[in-house]
Amino acid sequence: MQTSVDIAIVGGGPVGLSLVAMLVAQGIDSGKIAVIDAKPLTVAATDPRSIALSFGSRELLSTISAWPSNVTPITQIHVSRRGSFGRTLIDSHDYQLPALGYVCRYGDLVRALDIATPAGLSVLRPASVNHLKQFDEHVLLTLSDGGEVSASIVVQAEGGVFSEQTPKAQHRDYAQIAITAEVHAAAPAPGRAFERFTSEGPLALLPQQDGYVMVWCVAPNTAERLMAMDDENFLAALQDAFGQRIGKFTTIGQRHHYPLGLNAQPKTQDRIIAIGNAAQTLHPVAGQGLNLGLRDAAVLAKMLARDFSPTTLTDFEKSRQPDRATTIRLTDVMARVFASGSDRSASQQLLGFSLGLLDFVPPAKRALAEQMMYGWR
User: Fold this and answer.
1) Are 363 and 91 spatial neighbours (Cβ–Cβ below 8 Å)?
2) Can you list the positions of beta strands (E) in the chain?
3) CATH code where residue 160 lies
4) pLDDT tens digits for 33-66?
């Protein structure tokens, strides 16, 4: 059986579902759109992972009535360097905003987007794309269930893969592993997120409900050692790396870990475009990956409302290049430079001191805050 549509979106996660709603908001008939996703909706909607959404992403999601109800606001971001006195504090009140960003469950966002999904859409799940062939006027997708989809435009919105398969890809292995878990502390600071740089990588604590989401980036051998610890010893190691700003760490949930890298690859086919993690998989420092993907979706929806030609996709790539390049550069530099020396080395002391100077240079501090909230614009 073959389904014929104008736009086929491969990936039914937050970026793919946001694109659907944004396309319909731009006047595109939902009956001309198909979404292909490998996961059943029940799996995605119950995913307990935590994600960071910028204030700009809240504005985008609110325009399509897909803002999740269960979110924890981030009103302050405390940035510091381990072993240095330098630090900076970014506060939402300085920008007359209710929050700099928010933390929510992946599943809660997917459920909100599912509710906002227009009727008439062709949703093919669980199904994956086995083969994809491009012709002059359309692309033919062969699915794992034997079905076929013919589309004028294919949007790759599935989660990206960190690999070196594409020679032209902008690729970097950070030699870091991210360990994630939910933690609780004796003296939490409501609404305050922490980004703490160490010699092995950043350590982030994002407020969620009455605790924190921890993302701790370390060298592979350190990750192996930390993952082998019991909870008591792990929390002691975390305390040593983070300090006493929120008191003693008291409990930790299940730990997960995954390798980190940068994989930003360009579009290579006329009628196929990649957005979100399919176009750029970033280091999690500053939590910019999903937010960049939502901005991709918003711009692409506006441009596809014009026409479905390869020229539109070329124009999209050009229009998104500044924001993508700036965000990639920011996360890459932060991931590498702050982990380029020991905690008390002269270079890292200088970097730590520079964080303190940000508080006395309002234009530079505002530029950093606006990049994190809205991206390049």
Assistant:
1) no
2) 2-10, 33-36, 50-54, 72-74, 76-81, 87-91, 101-105, 122-124, 129-134, 139-143, 148-156, 170-185, 192-198, 201-208, 211-218, 249-252, 256-264, 272-274, 280-281
3) 3.50.50.60
4) 999 999 899 998 899 899 999 999 999 999 999 9
- pLDDT, tens digit, 9 for 90 and up, residues 117-128: 988 999 999 999
In a domain, 245, yes or no: no
pTM: predicted TM-score of the whole model, two decimal places: 0.88
Q: Please list, residue by residue across 55-76, b when 16 or more beta carbons sit within 10 angstroms of its beta carbon and e when fewer do.
A: bbbbebbeebebbbeebbbbbb
Residue 115 lies in a domain: yes
- Expressed in percent and rounded to 5, the helix, strand and coil fractions of the chain are 35, 30, 30
- Residue in 122, 132, 124, 168 with CA at minimum distance from that of residue 267: 168
Amino acid at 162: F
Q: How many CB atoms lie within 10 A of CB 110?
A: 23
- Is 69 contained in some domain? no
Tokens representing residue 267 in the block: 């579009």
Domain that holds residue 141: 2-52+107-167+262-336
For residue range 75-111, what is the model confidence (pLDDT) as tens digits?
A: 999 988 776 666 788 899 988 999 999 999 999 999 9
Which residue is listed with tokens 């997708």? 141
Domain count, the chain: 1
138 touches 89 (CB < 8 A): no
Give the pLDDT of residue 353: 43
Evaluated on CA atoms 327, 339, 181, 223, the torsion sign reads positive
* 24 occurs within a structural domain: yes
Q: Does position 158 have pLDDT exceeding 60, yes or no?
A: yes
